[in-house]
Every structure is written in structure tokens, then in C-alpha cells.
């Protein structure tokens, strides 16, 4: 496995590999099985898998969160090697943001201004969009793998790739969960055992809403109430809990398009995110048969 | 010559040509000999020359300027064909900015906030940076050709390409001038004969300053005064007239690094830009000999 720490080393490592598909898995390190599920998905479609490890300072809007973010490079390299990663790109902040750096990639609108954008501030998704643009352009992979766990980030990445025409296909991999249902996150290591139990109310709330959808519930307020009940019972007050459209993160009243139920809550010292994809309700043939029938032209 | 109007057509046209060097010349059409000098430079280094024609609405901060911008697609295609362009990319605004488009590439600091950024407003260089990013990523050429005439735009493009890591080398071609010295510009067609004569004060002012530099003048205020005298004599009041560093467009007091004397002035109905590159003054051995000599260590 090649470990590149500069853009020049990365380019040299990839130059002889460009005749076959390349995949990239952008991460902030502190690798867990969720990241490794992205590597597994990437390996299935690419001859070369690049894993980037960069704790991007510009997307942290609280210094304390940046300082507390777990870092474990040696451990990460061992895990990446075992998972079959071919090239790790682990640059310094000075390599990614040299003196004179002045460019920001921004996405306007509800997608970046609501939910995580509202809680963390405008700079968060500017930081995400800028670093993802830089990493995708540095690797110029055929495919890039992101986890559904960070649903709003996924939507931001898909938006910027489409808007700027970055020549990499974005592949979204379902959220990886521990056996108890908790979405895997590098931040989970900071949960106390008691908080970890409380945190299970998040996947429970999402599962309850998904079951209600399967049973025919289409009303967003009703779905929120079902999920809120589970959080309440565990004493959790969410930062937000909303049914949004998957692309633009506009809040929905009904499940009339691709939607996601998103939740964020602080559990002890840790802020956790989770979400569940809610398929739009398929219009059944019964309903189609109930449509008013237009009078045939020419009929008496 | 292939004329592509959609990104998909452009990709198809370029796919079979990617085994040899590709060059791109981004333009807003209304082609003149200045653009064709970029094509000539591009042809010297590339097997395939792509010329893009797109009057980018987002970089116009005045609707009247956008409306008045000359458009001559048939004429442009004839000129491009005669100049040996292989592929013209002439998309519609809807192709470049489809519904839902929400991404902006911005460069912070004096580079985009001063001079053209101050006169035209912040949105101007955001529009330039975003469309140039999109066009460069659409073509993914080895080299891209820009004219020195729009010096601040050149600096913005070089900054964003470096910052984002867009894999295209930016080549800057000296300003193309008519026989009388006027910098070629698509806007020149809107000058009345009398205004065209008055406009010659711009290249005269720049040439006077360049002569003064050749004669040893290094003081920015003195150079500005020399140029201002020529503009004054023609009754022109510049929007700005300044000696700036070529990369960051910070105003300089002395020619102590790569510098440009930039000028913008309204002549009749038309706003004209021009500039001259001023090489930094080489420190002569005489001057070096005048430096205070440190007492040798160990001397009495």
C-alpha cells in the first residue's frame, strides 16, 4: 500500500494506474467498519482504491469539536491495508491550504442553510464542498464512495459534482450499523456506556417511522410524531427531526418524492446524526382506477 | 469542425481525442484577432483545439452590458473553422445552469474585491470563477489559453485552478493589439470613430509608463502620474489606474515584484480595460555593492 502525503506523491502513485478504474473513499480517518464497507463497495468496481484521510479544519465551526475529533493514523493505515486499499492520501492542512489559498466552493439554498447548515453555520458546508472538490480533483477517480449516514453531506456532494461537472460518479452506500442498530460514527468512541444505550433511541425512532410508512402512513407530521415519541422516551431532545426531500433538503408535508427522515441529537458529550431513506409512496393501480375518466371525444 | 451545444455532445466529441493533447480557448464569442491569437498559440501545443463560446450571464452585473454584448455565432463559427479549431462548444445558459443549479466558486480577498471587482461588484468574479471552473472541467484539456488583456481575470483563473487543483495548465498570451495600439476587445465595435481616437490614450499611457520603467523609474506613484497625464490630455478619467502585483492584485508602492499597470476607463458608451506587464527591477551589482557591509566576525 502506498501512503502519499503530498499531491505530487498522489499524482505519481496514480499515474501508472489510470488505464483501469480508480475509486476514492474520502474520510476524516478514525476508520471504523462503516468506512471499510465503503472500501469493500469500492473494491468491487475498481482496480485501484484510494482512501483519503484528512481532518478538514475548515468544516469544523467549533474549535473544540475539531480538537476532540479522534485521530489514529497508524491504526487507520493498518485497517486500510487489511481492507485492500491501494493508495492512502493523508495530506497535512498546509498541503491542502497553502499560503495564498483563497477559493471556496459554496452551494446556496436550503440544502446548506438548514439542519446541519443551521446548527453548524454556513462555513460548515462551504468547508465540505471545497475540500471534497479538491480531493475529487486530486484523485480524478471514476467513482467516489460516501456513506448515507451523513445524508445532507451526500446531497451537497452530489449537487456540487453535478453543478461543476466533476468527472467522478458519486456512489452512496447504505449506513453501516453496529449489531444494536447504532449508526457507525467516529464520534461514537466518545459515548459513555450509559449514553450509548440512550443513543439507541435514534435508530429506534427511525425504524418506527419506517414501519409506519410501510403500513401506509404518508403524512410527515405523523411520521415525525412517531419518531419523536421514541426520542422523548429516552430523554433525548433532537436538534432537528424532519422529513426532507433527498436532493434539496426542503421539508416535506407528505411523502410525495424521494425523502429522508433526518435526526440529530446531542447524547452526553457527543452530537449524533442518523437518517432513514423513505421511499415515495407508489401509486397503486387501485388508485389509478379511481381517477375521473374523461368522456371519450365524439361520444353523445 | 464539430459544433457541440450540450455537455454530452462535447464529451462524445472529445472521447476519441483524449490520447493526444487537448487545448481549450474559453471565449464569450464575437471573435476578433485577439481570440484567434489564442487559437494559434493553442494549435502549436495541442492536437485538438476546443473553442468555447458562452456569454456567461452570471458575470454581468449590469443587464444593459449583457444585452449590449455583441453576439455573432455564424460569423464566429466561420472564423473558428478558418483558424483551425477542431471543436466549438457553444452551450445555452440552460445547459450550463440547469434548474436546481446552486454552486458558486469564489475567490476571497483583494484579487476579487478591488478594481474590476469593486467596479462591477462581487458577483462578477464569482461568475467568472464558476463558469471557468465548469468549462475547464467540461473539456478537461491539458492547456487553457487566456489573454493578458483581462489581467485580473487571468489572476483569478490562475488562483482557482491552483487552489482547486483543476488539472489544466493555464497559458497566458500577450495582449493582441490593432495597428494603432488599441487592445483588441469585442466591445471595441461599439466605439464611435471619434471615441476610438480618444481610446488610444490608454495604450499611450501604458507605453509611457513602460518607457519610464525602462529608464529606471520604480516608484508606483510616479508611474501612475506619467500614465494619468496621457489620459488627462485625452479628457479621459479612469475608473482606476494602479500598479498591482500580478498574482494578488495588491497595490504596490514600488516595482519590487512581478507587477502590472492596470487601467479601466469609459470612452463614450464603452468601458475599456488595458494593462502592461512591468517586470520587476533587477537589482544591479552597483546597488548590491552599496549595501552596508557587516563587520567580519572576529575583527578587532
TrEMBL record, chains A, B:
Q: Which reaction does it catalyse?
A: (R)-pantoate + beta-alanine + ATP = (R)-pantothenate + AMP + diphosphate + H(+)
On assembly, the entry states:
Homodimer.
Q: Would the keyword Cytoplasm turn up in this protein's UniProt record?
A: yes
Q: What name is this protein filed under?
A: Pantothenate synthetase
Main function: Catalyzes the condensation of pantoate with beta-alanine in an ATP-dependent reaction via a pantoyl-adenylate intermediate.
Q: Which InterPro entries match?
A: Pantoate_ligase, Pantoate_ligase_C, Rossmann-like_a/b/a_fold
Q: Report which gene this protein is encoded by.
A: panC
Enzyme type, top EC level: ligase
Q: Which NCBIfam families match?
A: panC (TIGR00018)
Task: List the HAMAP family.
Answer: PanC (MF_00158)
Locate the coiled-coil region(s) and give their ranges.
none
GO MF term (any one):
ATP binding
Q: Where in the cell is it found?
A: Cytoplasm
Q: Which family does it belong to?
A: Belongs to the pantothenate synthetase family.
- The entry's active site is 35
Which of this chain's residues are annotated to bind beta-alanine?
59
Q: Name one Pfam family in it.
A: Pantoate_ligase
